[in-house]
């Protein structure tokens, strides 16, 4: 018996080691790959450079993309956006610099497998080996934060997209610029909406993923909710690989008026599904990231009434006229033009991740056009002074020492899922009222 | 009170599935003294088979379980013939390493083919409400499935010739061989049955939760805890251990953050090993 016990302990130790290995291996494929064997992602058509004509220059846009691992869905949409921008800007003849050189763009990207360690290694490679001129961040705050260090260290301008966490911009970086509305303003609008939608509501339960981005969002949300007089009856985080939410759902006290939080697509859609299956009733459900994704409709009835903040939606009302009224210049395609060209190329509706990818490229383009140069200092100056409106919304960066690069102009919109009489599910913009395409509704009893 | 009863019900139902997964491990252990480190990947095989049959052939995940059982049995026989048979009489470390190698091979193949993405069987059955108690049908059916397969295992072990042969070999391999029982076939069948149970447990889990190719791992570790808790080499003890673990997983988060669940579980594992190494129903 004793020897069997010894073997048992040994086997559990071995098993634990295997699991520990598995825990970090969003993709163990990496371990077998040697850096020399690395090849740029072939899927990026723009990466195939044409021979340069005299007076033209190809600017390399370097980025990593989560083509595998848990951030695959969001990551791929973001790359689609970047690719579409490159295709369109090059088709229009590129950008003309002050010295008469025409600049065209090409993408160089690698699959980061949603893995933070890989990101730093790959961005160093993009800068040193691939000679990237400008950088776009990978999707997600954690990965973007890891890549920002490298960009700043090598004096490269990086536009972060798909990354809303505020903390990256409090580290004294001077070359990192955020395309997304920061996390601190992500779900606060849902609290305002709750006040209008259900004035009697008092109790909010917050269940969130324990990653950097979601924690930033819910900490700001909690503080805001308390400042508005709400009681936060549950505030608990879950690990990133959680699939069983029963323990969290059972902890939601009866009489809770709103359930908020979430994390990324996979976990939040599972949480939404399990809330529906457990027939949890509340007046409002507002989650991060997942609800604005078109794929969220695959949850069926479970998606009905769920609200999500979105950086952008095809129904937003930004237009050259609105820009004129606001006294800022308009830049790039209109909302309709972007929406249609995206659908044409990818045969699906663009999500805010796609728009964010496109916007990141467009910001670089706008800055180069204004600077008339691709020199880092001149482009940085143009970015610092940028204040414009585009299909993606307003773009203006904080230039203060404490928050340099933080997005100040762009605002969130909130969508809600509706069930149509014919049984299909559609999302509508419900907040802010000025941008709404439908009126928000209180969740029906389940 | 409402929270307590809901948590207990959820944990209890899931406990049956944990028990079924552990039963496979316990059976192999009890009969051939092999610690099967390929148990987790076999659980994943069950999950993936169910998923692929559902996605590509539209097969109801509960019906798919029959195919999953056959796949589990075949895989178990294959693993036994290729990796376990030659080392079964060697020192125990050999079989441990052999099954560990199988574990890495299966995971490597899955990673190459399927990648690390999350898979979800979108087959929702809703839930049953009795007063304030809410039970999802997927958990209820998974528990029922686990009970059925447990019953099948017992009927097989006690009322069929091959089952009796397995028990005889477990009891005394040499004596069984002297009685004319072909022990090699019996051992292969045992390994196949253990894998069958693991694959079916994986299939049941995939109807409740989304999974990745690595999801079998945590259930393998849980199976170790359960086997120790219930008693080494005793399949019924494994079921009991599974229920206890399920209940603990329901109860612990009521008083502390869920991140503490594995700490308490493995604390219990060490505690049982020290205080009562034979487990609750363990053989003396």
From TrEMBL, chain B:
One GO BP annotation of this record: amino acid transport
Organism superkingdom: Bacteria
Residues spanning the signal sequence: none
Subcellular location, record wording: Cell membrane
Methyltransferase recorded as keyword: no
GO cellular component, one term: plasma membrane
Membrane topology: Multi-pass membrane protein
Molecular function terms from GO: transmembrane transporter activity
Keywords, ordered alphabetically: Amino-acid transport, Cell membrane, Membrane, Transmembrane, Transmembrane helix, Transport
One Pfam family this sequence matches: BPD_transp_2
Bilayer-spanning residue ranges: 12-32, 62-83, 95-116, 137-159, 186-211, 223-248, 254-275
Record-stated family: Belongs to the binding-protein-dependent transport system permease family. LivHM subfamily.
Full protein name: Branched-chain amino acid ABC transporter permease
Lineage per the UniProt record: Bacteria, Pseudomonadati, Thermodesulfobacteriota, Desulfobaccia, Desulfobaccales
């Amino acid at each position: 018996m004793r020897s069997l016990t010894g073997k048992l302990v040994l086997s559990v130790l071995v098993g634990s080691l295997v699991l520990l290995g598995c825990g970090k291996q969003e993709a163990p494929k990496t371990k077998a790959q040697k850096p020399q064997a690395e090849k740029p992602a072939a899927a990026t058509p723009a990466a195939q450079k044409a021979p340069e004509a005299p007076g033209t220059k190809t600017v390399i846009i370097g980025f990593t993309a989560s083509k595998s691992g848990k951030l695959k869905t969001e990551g791929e949409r973001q790359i689609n956006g970047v690719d579409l921008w490159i295709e369109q800007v090059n088709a229009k003849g590129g950008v003309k610099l002050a010295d008469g050189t025409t600049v065209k763009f090409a993408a160089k990207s690698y699959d980061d497998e949603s893995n933070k360690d890989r990101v730093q290694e790959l961005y160093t490679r993009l800068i040193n080996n691939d000679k990237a001129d400008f950088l776009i961040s990978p999707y997600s705050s954690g990965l973007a934060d890891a890549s920002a260090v490298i960009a700043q260290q090598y004096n490269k301008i990086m536009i972060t997209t798909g990354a809303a966490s505020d903390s990256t911009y409090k580290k004294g970086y001077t070359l990192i610029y955020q395309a997304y509305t920061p996390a601190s303003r992500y779900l606060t609008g849902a609290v305002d909406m709750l006040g209008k939608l259900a004035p009697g509501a008092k109790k909010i339960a917050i269940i969130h993923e324990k990653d950097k981005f979601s924690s930033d969002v819910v900490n700001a949300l909690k503080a805001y909710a308390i400042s508005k007089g709400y009681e936060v009856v549950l505030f608990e985080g879950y690990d990133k690989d959680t699939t069983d939410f029963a323990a969290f759902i059972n902890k939601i006290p009866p009489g809770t008026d709103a359930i908020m939080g979430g994390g990324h697509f996979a976990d939040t859609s599972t949480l939404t599904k399990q809330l529906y299956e457990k027939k949890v009733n509340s007046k409002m459900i507002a989650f991060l990231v997942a609800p604005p994704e078109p794929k969220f409709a695959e949850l069926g009835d479970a998606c009905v009434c769920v609200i999500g903040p979105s950086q952008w939606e095809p129904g937003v009302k930004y237009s050259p006229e609105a820009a004129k009224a606001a006294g800022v210049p308009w830049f790039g395609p209109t909302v309709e033009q972007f929406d249609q060209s995206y659908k044409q190329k990818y045969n699906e509706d663009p999500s805010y991740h796609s728009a964010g990818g496109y916007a990141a490229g467009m910001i670089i383009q706008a800055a180069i056009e204004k600077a008339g140069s691709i020199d880092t200092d001149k482009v940085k100056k143009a970015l610092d002074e940028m204040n414009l409106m585009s299909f993606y919304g307003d773009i203006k960066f904080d230039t203060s020492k404490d928050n340099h690069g933080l997005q100040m102009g762009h605002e969130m919109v909130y969508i809600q899922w509706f069930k149509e009489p014919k049984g299909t599910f559609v999302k509508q913009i419900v907040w802010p009222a000025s941008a709404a395409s439908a009126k928000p509704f209180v969740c029906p009893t389940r | 009170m409402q929270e307590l009863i809901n948590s207990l019900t959820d944990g209890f139902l899931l406990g049956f599935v944990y028990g079924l997964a552990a039963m496979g491990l316990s059976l192999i252990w009890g009969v051939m003294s092999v610690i099967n480190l390929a148990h987790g990947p076999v659980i994943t095989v069950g999950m993936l088979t169910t998923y692929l049959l559902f996605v590509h052939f539209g097969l109801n995940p509960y019906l798919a379980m029959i195919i999953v059982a056959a796949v589990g049995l075949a895989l178990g026989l294959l693993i036994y013939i290729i990796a376990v048979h030659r080392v079964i009489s060697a020192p125990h470390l050999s079989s441990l390493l052999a099954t560990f190698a199988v574990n890495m091979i299966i995971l490597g193949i899955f990673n190459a083919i399927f990648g690390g993405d999350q898979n979800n069987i979108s087959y929702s059955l809703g839930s049953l409400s009795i007063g304030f108690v809410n039970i999802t049908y997927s958990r209820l059916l998974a528990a029922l499935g686990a009970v059925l397969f447990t019953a099948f295992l017992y009927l097989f072990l006690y009322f069929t010739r091959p089952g009796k042969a397995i028990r005889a070999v477990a009891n005394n391999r040499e004596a069984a061989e002297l009685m004319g029982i072909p022990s090699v076939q019996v051992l292969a069948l045992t390994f196949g049955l253990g894998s069958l149970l693991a694959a079916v447990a994986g299939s049941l889990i995939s109807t409740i939760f989304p999974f990745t190719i690595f999801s079998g791992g945590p259930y393998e570790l849980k199976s170790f805890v359960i086997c120790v808790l219930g008693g080494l080499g005793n399949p019924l003890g494994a079921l009991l251990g599974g229920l206890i673990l399920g209940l603990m997983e329901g109860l612990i988060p009521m008083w502390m953050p869920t991140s503490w669940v594995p700490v308490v579980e493995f604390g219990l594992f060490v505690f049982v090993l020290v205080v009562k190494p034979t487990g609750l129903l363990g053989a003396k």
